[in-house]
């Protein structure tokens, strides 16, 4: 395996940075595109673990305003990140001349791949690892930022410490976040795509109920498969191997479906 750096022009005023991981034991010549979560990068622990160990060629990249990529980011900018993913997909097809077997994301990145699939329906296999479903929950700010409510009301923003340095959360971004409608996954065309959802039973960040909702909207099998990993938290600490095995097995099984279409 080797890591090749990528620079992807968005056609705007910034470039996305990514990495291509080619595997000698790859199960297909096609690639899997892997998307990181909120305030993460392509080198976040779980993303890098999957990228390095999955028996498929993998491309990871930093969403705009994250890691090495240009542009700016915000807590509710999933639509922008969907377009980032679209740029990467176009680059893989037109510049790298490779087919895309699947798109996979963790947390916010998983919501992005689901939304992408619901709009464009042009990637056969879609993997959702721990995506949130309900973005309209009014208790989110109070639960996650209880000590920032006063500053948010007074100044209209606050700085989220830790992770990405200087990450600013604005009131208007939280309003945009609350408008995200994940029920759009029902627009994924069953004849064109299959979806896997993997969620930890003890996810403390994105409620497990969302995984069952995705199953109801996209399912039944074989259109959607739901795997709950017992005792796993949001980052699958101590269950990375089980997560990897679930993803890899599903990809291998459904690769046959895709090739036989």
Automatic annotation (TrEMBL):
Sorted keywords for this record are: Hydrolase
Q: For the Serine aminopeptidase S33 domain, which residue ranges apply?
A: 27-136
**One of the record's GO molecular function terms:** hydrolase activity
Gene3D superfamilies associated with the record: alpha/beta hydrolase
Classification via Pfam families: Hydrolase_4 (PF12146)
Q: What is this protein called?
A: Alpha/Beta hydrolase protein
Q: Which organism is it from?
A: Gigaspora rosea
């Amino acid at each position: 395996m080797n890591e090749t750096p990528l620079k992807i022009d968005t056609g705007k005023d910034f470039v996305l940075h990514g990495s291509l991981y080619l595997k000698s034991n790859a199960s297909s010549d096609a690639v899997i595109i892997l998307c990181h979560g909120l305030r993460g990068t392509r080198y976040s622990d779980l993303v890098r673990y999957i990228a390095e160990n999955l028996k498929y060629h993998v491309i990871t990249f930093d969403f705009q305003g994250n890691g090495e990529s240009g542009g700016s980011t915000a807590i509710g900018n999933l639509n922008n990140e969907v377009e980032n993913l679209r740029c990467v997909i176009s680059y893989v097809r037109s510049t790298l001349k490779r087919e895309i077997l699947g798109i996979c994301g963790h947390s916010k990145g998983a919501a992005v791949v689901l939304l992408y699939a619901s709009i464009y329906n042009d990637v056969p296999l879609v993997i959702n690892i721990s995506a949130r479903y309900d973005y309209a929950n009014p208790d989110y700010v109070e639960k996650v930022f209880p000590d920032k409510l006063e500053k948010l009301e007074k100044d209209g923003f606050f700085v989220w410490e830790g992770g990405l340095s200087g990450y600013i959360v604005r009131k208007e971004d939280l309003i945009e976040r609350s408008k995200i409608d994940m029920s759009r996954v029902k627009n994924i065309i069953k004849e064109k795509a299959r979806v896997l959802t993997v969620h930890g039973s003890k996810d403390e960040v994105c409620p497990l109920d969302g995984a069952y909702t995705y199953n109801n909207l996209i399912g039944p099998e074989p259109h959607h498969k739901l795997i709950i990993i017992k005792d796993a938290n949001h980052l699958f600490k101590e269950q990375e191997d089980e997560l990897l095995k679930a993803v890899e097995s599903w990809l291998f099984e459904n690769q046959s479906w895709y090739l036989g279409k």
